[in-house]
Amino acid sequence: MSDTFARTERERERLALIGELADSFKPLAQAVDQEGGFAFESAEKLRASGYTRWPVPLAYGGEGMTVYEMVLYQERIAMGDPALALAIGWHVSTVADLSAKKSWSEDKLAPFLRAVAAGKLMNRAATEKGTGSPTRGGKMQTTAERHGDGYVVRGRKTFTSLAPVLDLVVVNTTLIEGDTEEAADFLIPMDTPGVSVDPVWNMMGMRGTASHDLVLDDVVLPQEALVYRASAGRRGSPPANPNLLHVPACYLGAAVAAREEALAFAASYQPNTLDRPIIHLPHIGTLIGEIDIELAAARHFMYSVAARWEHPVADEAAGIAELGAVKAFAIRTALSVADKALRIAGAHGLAQTHPLQRLFRDIRFGLSNPPMEDAVLRMYHQQALRETGQA
Prior knowledge:
- By secondary structure, the chain is of the alpha+beta class.
- About 50% of the residues lie in helices and about 15% in strands.
- It is built from ten helices and eight strands.
- Strands 1, 2, 3, 4, 5, 6, 7 and 8 form an eight-stranded mixed sheet that branches.
- A hairpin with a 2-residue loop joins strand 4 and strand 5.
- Helix 3 packs parallel to helix 6, helix 4 packs antiparallel against helix 6 and helix 8 packs antiparallel against helix 9.
- The longest helix has 30 residues.
- The relative contact order is 0.12.
């Protein structure tokens, strides 16, 4: 199933490269999950392959990876290691989004993109324990205040994926200047004094993302570290972020991996009450058929929407809702597929040493990634109200 949606020879070649890497990630993914660690070797393989610089535009030394390509490769990485796919997905999607929206001035954006093209890994640190998901609009408790010619930043961020290997982090803050406050972003090298990682990540699923807390203890920054402030506007940038399709790509990749594990088990498991493996049993065949239909529908939906966002979208409001729908449908599908895969493997799939139980736990985590399903459903509700003149 992994190369079904590659459209060109270049995409097929790159997908083959990513696929080879992804398959090599599987043993370490299982070990990292059990230990609660991080797949350093796998992350370095991705960096060394050049993949982490692909979303950088050609003009800045990257490969100009499109949204469609990102979905294609991210799904394939997740077939090998969903946790690493989700973590590296925040790097590639954030770089692509910043490149597309150009909400930073050129003198800030250009050196950042060149650093990523040279191999630097980054993520955005937005979430806070007391603020909740940034998509809910909470005010950042991490603050930035004037300090001489620069700023001092204080706070703590949660869910900082890739924390052990990050080189750069974009920190969302509340900028305080006199009596005024506004949202502002700072680009901070991880080796800046006062920046540290508190290794608190210990979740049931996606254990290998290493999404630890980022601690900012009186971090003194120069003026140029301020890369964006709300009062400067976004220079006409679109509110939509099609690069968030890396999220459904990750979970559908994990669902495909669950399917492969279920098929492998069904084709090899033969209790002494049967004369051939259980894959021949009618009820097992029904489960496999249901899995394949569900995956086909969700994957075609995702790739068709990804292809649409390679060009300007006429009705952006409807397009934003559709982007959210892809994620919501992907998670529903992945949860259903993982459940059916475990029904095929039975208690064998629940062993701590079996990949299926890990995939099941990883997929469950998708309910907590943006956009949230209730927000997506609310967008469609609002559309219906407008359609019927009830808005």
